[in-house]
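Lay summary

Proteins are chains of building blocks that fold into shapes. Our project writes down both the chain and a compact code for its shape. Here are two examples, one after the other.
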Amino acid sequence: MRGRRDSQVTALAFIDVEKRVPADHPLRTIKALADEALAELSPEFDRLYADVGRPSIPPERLLKSSLLIALFSVRSERAFCEELDYNLLFRWFLDMGVFESSFDATVFTKNRQRLLERRVGQQLFDEVVAQAHESGLLSDEHFSVDGTLIEAAASLKSFKPRDGGDKNDRGDGGDPGDPWVDFRGEKRRNATHESTTDPEARLMRKGKGKEAKLAFMAHGLMEHRHGMLVDFQVTEATGTAERDIVPQLLAEAKERYFKPTTLAGDRNYDTRALVAEMRRRGVTPHVAQNQSRRSSAIDGRTTRHPAYKTSQRLRKRIEEIFGWMKTIGGFRRSRYRGVERTGLAAYLVGTAYNLVRLAKVLNRARVVAPAA
């Protein structure tokens, strides 16, 4: 029999959000992991806020909202707050009641400086990495490093001479928000030009034949056992930034609970200075050789071992991480100005990826365990 629409709206309804979310929904494991990590940061949150005054939006809720923005490819914080009004799954993840009002998008902006001052984004990232380490899921010794460009929230039209002169300024053409600019015949370099929108952004291209863009450089350190990020930092984009950050990544890894013995990378890391520095630190450089072996710092004492071939095969998985972060996580282009704010966003998107990866590994282990 054909069903008919009931024109009478129910005046009162009782909704159990917990029952609306399927028991096998993948977000359940992610929520449990995120709540556990945030619980460890509760003392840090107490230090962020005063003891008196009007209660704020819980910082745990704001951080979990940032995770949802990455997990569900929400285009902006404002769009997320709008969707939060009617999305029961989001409300369940944030522990919000059905009748509780959504918060304003400016809350993210007002609390961002607090998070930056206490490096909360990095602490949350580290807590999730610690969960994976305590579960015995991470490799303590074998890692890969790579870099990728993150487009800055600035137009090429904002890249102007530092001395203030602009011979190519043709006026606004009747549109001050989108003026006419002619770059023909002009040599534009980071040494002589900078963006008026984001002075920390640098003109950079990833490879030959690629277009130059205003960008930041993001550096990922991946462990080899399950392909999880153990560090993800943002710096200014320079021609040597990928190599310059490696000693810092290794030092910070050793300060935690890792003992790097091998580090894989592409040909960009095959320089005599970097290879010598890695060997000095007791790390075997499993980096790809330059096309010309005569100029390569990697010789047969490294390439003859089977472990070198294994590292070269596994290192390419870090590109899958960057792909997820730029497509699903929406981190192809920064929404923020400056290295510091973009770095905070990088840690949050990196945390979202690690939670997805960790949840998959743990759920797979639970399925296999009863059959063992």
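And here is the second example, written the same way.
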Amino acid sequence: MTSPGTARRLWALAEPFHALTYFAPESRTAGENAGLIGFWRTYFAFRAAPLGAVGAEAVTATFYNFEPAFVARRVPAVWEATPPAGALAARLAGVDAAVRRVLGEDWIDSAEAAEAAGLAGSAAASIDPAGRPLAAANAGLPAPAEPHLALWQGLTTLREHRGDGHNAALLHRGITGAAPHVLAVAAGRSTREWLMRARGWDDTDWYAAADSLARRGWLADGGLTVEGLAVVAAVEADTDRLAVDPWPAIGDAGCDRLAGLLAPVRRAVVVAGEWPDQNPIGAPDPA
């Protein structure tokens, strides 16, 4: 049977391809062409657009890990620059241009790209949307006709499904605000500098979260205690378990085949320099 390990492996393989929409210069250019000036306006508009013209409160809630005022400085103003439909078109245009540069026309026209799109699309179509707002919103979008964009859309739905589950695992344990980031740094998955800059928290927020985690017995001298290690492991295990749901739709053989198809895609993105080291996403290297 498909397992939590399978879900984690496929996320690790797929995430750099999805993240072209954040890190590739073509995506930033597409955002600027749509009137979205600056990295963060493009980020919030592109990622939130499947939800519609929502306000800062909804974006803060569904994205979960951003400082609220950091979000409010961009949302809902981004919808004055371009409506959600325009942001959706721009994000696909950015991904299209990035994929053509990074993977080339031969891959775009290949049987492998079409096969990967079919497998990812079948898995994405099978998600249970209950409690998964970002996954459900992306699943409700029409699949692009071009296989490389259909693959990106399917993998985006699946990664938002995983992210929704991760948020549930954190919330279940009362880990909110800056606390998930403090734990991530203590676990060695990212750096304080990256996460504070990328999620909008300041020193006061960070130290307050660290103090709260220390009072819970999870942090000591900036490092994880034995109990803290167990909590972090439990959150990751629950996230992997909650991410399994779509994958039985393609079965073990389909999951293995998709992993094999994604491995060179991931490698091409990394070699092109579009997957920054120590980025705030925290996806591991594939096993």
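What can we say about the second shape? The chain has one domain: 4-271.
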